[in-house]
Amino acid sequence: MSSKGKLITLEGIDGSGKSTVAGRLASNPEFSDFVFTREPTGSWIGEAVDRAIHSDTDHLAELMLFAADHAEHISKLIRPSLDSGRHVISDRYSASRYAYQGMTLADRFDDPLDWVRNLHRDWTIEPDLTILFDVDPGTAVARCGSRGDKTKFEKIGFLEGVRANYLRLAKENPDSFVIIDAGKSIDETEAELIDIIHSFLKR
Ligand code: ADP
Predict the structure, then answer these.
(1) N or C terminus of the chain with fewer C-beta within 10 Å?
(2) Which domain covers residue 187, as residue numbers?
C-alpha cells in the first residue's frame, strides 16, 4: 500500500481569493503537517518568471520559463514531499499554464490549451485534486484594484478567456476537479475549501 501524500492544487483567475484562503489554511494548526507552496516559486527560475510576467516578454519564452519553474518545483519540493508521505497544497500549478498560456498563445496554436498541456505530459505530477476558485472576472479585477504588483493578466477580457479555459479543464477532468463559488465571502470560501479537503482525504 502506498503511503504517498496527496497533491492538492488551488486554481482560479487573479483575484479569485486563492492566496488569501491558502494563507489562512497555512496558519491553521489542523494543517500544520501539510506543505504549502506556490507557483511561480521563490527560486531563481521563479524570479525569472516574475520578470517575464511584469514585462513584454515573448509569450512562448514566458511559457518555457513557467515550465522550467514547474520542473524545478516538482523535483525539489513536490516529489520529495509526496514521497515522504506529506500532503501538499500548491497555490497555482500546471492548470494555471493551461488556462493562462492557453490565452496568451491563442494566436500561435489552434488549440493552445491542449498544446501547453501536451508540453507537460509525461513529466509533470498530476494533482490528486484541483480546487477551482470560480468567480466573475469583474468581481476579481475589482478585488485586485488596490493591489500594488499588478500583472498584465489582470484585465477583464483576458480573464474571461482564462476562466473559460479553467471551466473547460474542470469539465474534461470531472474526477479530479472541484469548483468553489469564490464570489462569496472569504470566511465562506475558506469553510467550503476545508470541507472539500476533508471529504477528499476521507475518500
Ligand atoms: P488570488 O490569489 O486568487 O489572486 P488573492 O487571495 O490575492 O487572490 O485576493 C485578491 C484580493 O481580493 C485581496 O485583496 C483579497 O483580500 C481580496 N479577496 C480575496 N478573497 C475575497 C473574498 N472572498 N471576498 C472579498 N475579497 C476577497
Answers:
(1) N
(2) 7-201
Q: Answer yes or no: is 170 within a domain.
A: yes
User: Residue 95: enclosing H or E segment and its boundaries?
Assistant: helix 94-104
Residue 11 lies in a domain: yes
**How far away, in angstroms, is 139 Cα from ligand 1 center?**
10
pLDDT in tens, 81-96: 999 999 999 999 999 9
79 Cα: distance to centroid of ligand 1 (angstroms)? 29
CATH of the domain at 165: 3.40.50.300
Cβ(176) – ligand 1 distance below 6 Å? no
Predicted confidence (pLDDT) per residue in 10-26, tens digit:
999 999 999 999 999 99
pTM, rounded to two decimals: 0.95
From 16, 20, 53, give the residue whose CB has the most ligand 1 atoms within 8 Å, as the site to mutate: 20
| pLDDT of res. 2 | 55
Alpha carbon 36 to chain centroid distance?
12
Terminal alpha carbon distance of the chain? 15
Instruction: Kindly tell me the sign of the dihedral angle through the C-alpha atoms of 97, 98, 103, 106.
Output: positive
* Ligand 1 contact, 143 CB (< 6 A): yes
Residue to probe by mutation, ligand 1, list 11, 38, 143, 192, most atoms within 8 Å of CB = 143
Is 46 annotated in a binding site? The answer is: no
